């Protein structure tokens, strides 16, 4: 399975199916691809903030991909003309060769487009199972004790964890998340997009690999990892 880091919290998984996560592309200053370059089967959106919902609706309308998210956000995307499948936290669903389970995330979820924010449901993370591998995308979240249950119930081959601080976990809490989740490997995300969330991923890597058995893979936007 090929995992490409688009930047911020956006990833593109290519295997038996193509899964796009949180496709913030056009307005992402670090993205090296365009929405038209991507042809996913599924688009997973963790919450309604613009830097995660991003270009999901446009890509779904252009490709016929199905947006998977919590009920309120899926309903919003459906009203914009996208194919959607609504779920909620704790629920799982098989989409062909891909199984998706929604996990808790501590964050907000409202879309601001010039007026009052539109509430788009509870934010979430995703547990994605494909080709015998389990990948956990935490979404935007602070550290939460439920990560221990996720690690206990699922053998994680890869965890995609925010480290940017301010809006999400910072590096110190992300290190504690690794200890709870016990993944084989970690890719940090949601950092260095803007100065407000600037972090040193190499320092995060040193601490994680010194204190846990997980391997940290640092990807620049546009780079890929073979799982």
Plain-language structure description:
- The protein is globular.
- Helix 4 runs parallel beside helix 5 (171-181) and helix 5 packs parallel to helix 6.
- The N and C termini lie close together (5 Å).
- Strand 2 and strand 3 form a beta hairpin.
- The strands form three sheets. It has a seven-stranded mixed beta sheet, with helices on one face. A seven-stranded mixed beta sheet has the order 7-8-11-12-13-14-15, with helices on one face. Strands 9-10 form a two-stranded antiparallel ribbon.
- The mean pLDDT is 97.
- It has 227 residues and is α/β, with parallel strands linked by helices.
- It has a single domain, classed as 4-Layer Sandwich (Metallo-beta-lactamase, Chain A), CATH 3.60.15.10.
- It is built from six helices and 16 strands.
Topology of this structure?
Blueprint: E1 2-7, E2 10-14, E3 18-21, E4 42-44, H1 50-53, H2 56-63, E5 66-70, H3 71-79, E6 83-87, E7 92-95, E8 98-104, E9 110-111, E10 118-119, E11 124-130, E12 133-137, H4 146-153, E13 158-162, H5 171-181, E14 185-189, H6 201-211, E15 215-216, E16 224-226
Parallel strand pairs: 3-4, 4-5, 5-6, 12-13, 13-14, 14-15
Antiparallel strand pairs: 1-2, 1-16, 2-3, 7-8, 8-11, 9-10, 11-12
Here the CATH topology equals Metallo-beta-lactamase, Chain A
Spatial strand order of the main sheet:
6-5-4-3-2-1-16
- SSE string: EEEEHHEHEEEEEEEHEHEHEE
Q: The biggest beta sheet, please? A: 7 strands, mixed
Helical content band: 10-25%
Return the structural class.
alpha/beta
* N→C terminal distance: 5 Å
CATH level-4 homologous superfamily: Ribonuclease Z/Hydroxyacylglutathione hydrolase-like
Q: Assign an overall shape.
A: globular
The number of distinct β-strands equals 16
The name of the CATH architecture is 4-Layer Sandwich
Mean pLDDT: 97
Number of helical segments with 4 or more residues: 6
What's the CATH class, please?
Alpha Beta
The residue ranges in which pLDDT falls below 50 over 5 or more consecutive positions are none
Q: State the oligomer.
A: single chain
Tally of structural domains: 1
